TrEMBL record:
Job description of the protein: NDH-1 shuttles electrons from NADH, via FMN and iron-sulfur (Fe-S) centers, to quinones in the respiratory chain. The immediate electron acceptor for the enzyme in this species is believed to be ubiquinone. Couples the redox reaction to proton translocation (for every two electrons transferred, four hydrogen ions are translocated across the cytoplasmic membrane), and thus conserves the redox energy in a proton gradient. This subunit may bind ubiquinone.
Pfam families cross-referenced by the UniProt entry: NADHdh (PF00146)
Subcellular location: Cell membrane; Membrane
Gene name tied to this protein: nuoH
Classification lineage: Bacteria, Pseudomonadati, Pseudomonadota, Alphaproteobacteria, Sphingomonadales
Enzyme Commission number(s): 7.1.1.-
Protein name in the entry: NADH-quinone oxidoreductase subunit H
InterPro entries in UniProt: NADH_UbQ_OxRdtase_su1/FPO (IPR001694), NADH_UbQ_OxRdtase_su1_CS (IPR018086)
Catalyzed reaction equations: a quinone + NADH + 5 H(+)(in) = a quinol + NAD(+) + 4 H(+)(out)
Membrane association type: Multi-pass membrane protein
Subunit annotation: NDH-1 is composed of 14 different subunits. Subunits NuoA, H, J, K, L, M, N constitute the membrane sector of the complex.
Transmembrane domains' residue ranges: 14-41, 88-109, 121-143, 164-187, 193-215, 256-276, 282-305, 325-343
Family stated for the protein in its record: Belongs to the complex I subunit 1 family.
Stored PROSITE patterns: COMPLEX1_ND1_2
Length: 348
C-alpha cells in the first residue's frame, strides 16, 4: 500500500504512515462489526442447543439485535461508584478493548494480507495476550468492591496458570515450523501430511498440543466452562459488577475480540491458516482469506458449543487442570517433539 501513496506524490515517511493507518482501520473496523455479528451468532447457537429461537425481533432474523443493544448501552449513563478509583475505573475497559485489538496486527488473513509481517509475530501475540488480564485486575481493584476484587484475583491466577502451558505448546509449534513468523508457520504446514494435507493438527505429535491449546484458549479468554471470573452464581458479574453503559460494552467487545483471536490462532498455528485443507491446485482458486474465515467460524462454533453444553468448573478443578495436567503434559511434549526433530535430523 505504501508504493500506492508514494505514486500520489507523498514522501516515503508519509506514505508509510498513511498506509499503516489504513491497514489498522481495515482490520479494526471489520473486526468490530464481526464482534457485533458474532455475539448474535453466539446467542443463536445457544438458543438452537436449548431448542429456543434466540434473537428474532430486531431486523430480519434478528440480525440487528446486537446493534440495538449497542445503541441502548450508548445512551445509558456511565455510573462511577463513589468509593471507586475513578481514573483506573474508567481506563480499565479501554485497556481490555485496546489490547484485544492490538494482537490482530500480526494475524495473516492471506499470504500478503497482514498488517505487520514481523519475524517475532508469535512472540508478539504471546506478549500482547498476556496484557489482557490487566484490564480485569484494574477493574477489580478500582471498583473498591469485594466481588470484583475476588474476580480480579481469580483472573490473575487463571491467566498465569494457562499462560505457562500455552507457552510450552507454542514452543512445539515453533520447533516444527522453525520460525516465529506467523506467515512462515502457515507455510510450514503446506503438504505437512503425505504431501497433500495442510495443517500441523494431523501430526500425531502435535495433535495433542492442539487439544491442549484449544482448551487453554477457552481458559485464557475466560469462556465457559472456565468463566470463573464472572461466575454469576458466586460473584454476581465479577469484575463487571459495578460497570454500566459503554464501559460495560467495551468489556463485551474486548471479550469477543479475544475469543475471535483465539479462534484465529487455532486456525493459523494448527489448521493451516489461509491454506486450503488439502494441497490440491483447484482448492487454491478459493481466496485464502475465505479459508481462514471459515476456519475461524468453525472454531467459534466449537467455543459456543462448549459454552452451551459443558457445566462450569469449580475453581480447584480449574487450577488442578492447569498445573497438574496441562503443564506436565505440554512440557513432556516439548521434550518429545525436540527429541524427534533432533533424531530425524530436522535441525541439521
Amino acid at each position: 500500500m505504501t508504493p500506492f501513496f508514494q505514486s500520489l506524490g507523498m514522501s516515503y515517511d508519509w506514505a508509510w504512515f498513511v498506509s499503516t493507518i489504513c491497514g489498522i482501520l481495515l482490520i479494526a473496523l471489520p473486526l468490530m462489526l464481526a464482534v457485533a455479528m458474532i455475539i448474535y451468532v453466539d446467542r443463536k447457537i445457544w438458543a438452537a442447543m436449548a431448542l429456543r429461537r434466540g434473537p428474532n425481533v430486531v431486523g430480519p432474523f434478528g440480525l440487528l439485535q446486537s446493534f440495538a443493544d449497542g445503541l441502548k448501552v450508548f445512551l445509558q449513563e456511565t455510573i462511577v461508584p463513589s468509593a471507586a478509583n475513578k481514573g483506573l475505573f474508567l481506563i480499565a475497559p479501554v485497556v481490555t478493548f485496546t489490547v484485544a485489538l492490538m494482537a490482530w496486527a500480526v494475524i495473516p488473513f492471506n499470504s500478503n494480507a497482514i498488517l505487520a509481517d514481523i519475524n517475532v509475530g508469535l512472540l508478539y501475540v504471546f506478549a500482547i495476550s498476556s496484557l489482557g488480564v490487566y484490564g480485569t485486575i484494574m477493574a477489580g481493584w478500582a471498583s473498591n468492591s469485594k466481588y470484583p476484587f475476588f474476580s480480579a484475583m481469580r483472573a490473575s491466577a487463571q491467566m498465569i496458570s494457562y499462560e505457562v502451558s500455552i507457552g510450552f505448546i507454542l514452543i512445539c509449534v515453533v520447533l516444527w515450523a522453525g520460525t516465529f513468523n506467523m506467515n512462515g508457520i502457515v507455510l510450514a504446514q503446506k503438504g505437512h501430511l503425505f504431501g497433500i494435507v495442510n495443517g500441523f493438527v494431523f501430526n500425531p505429535l502435535l495433535f495433542p498440543m492442539w487439544v491442549l491449546f484449544l482448551i487453554s484458549g477457552m481458559a485464557e479468554t475466560q469462556r465457559a466452562p472456565f468463566d470463573l471470573t464472572e461466575a454469576e452464581s458466586e460473584l454476581v458479574a465479577g469484575y463487571q459488577t459495578e460497570y454500566s453503559s459503554m464501559a460495560f460494552a467495551a468489556y463485551w467487545l474486548g471479550e469477543y475480540a479475544n475469543v475471535l483471536l483465539m479462534c484465529a490462532l487455532n486456525a493459523t498455528l494448527f489448521w493451516g491458516g489461509w491454506l486450503p485443507p488439502l494441497d490440491i491446485p483447484v482448492l487454491y482458486l478459493v481466496p485464502g482469506f475465505v479459508w481462514f474465515l471459515l476456519k475461524v467460524f468453525f472454531f467459534f462454533f466449537v467455543f459456543s458449543w462448549v459454552k452451551a453444553t459443558v457445566p462450569r468448573y469449580r475453581y480447584d478443578q480449574l487450577m488442578r487442570l492447569g498445573w497438574k495436567v496441562f503443564l506436565p503434559v505440554s512440557l513432556l511434549f516439548v521434550v518429545i517433539v525436540s527429541g524427534y526433530l533432533m533424531a530425524t535430523g530436522h535441525f541439521a
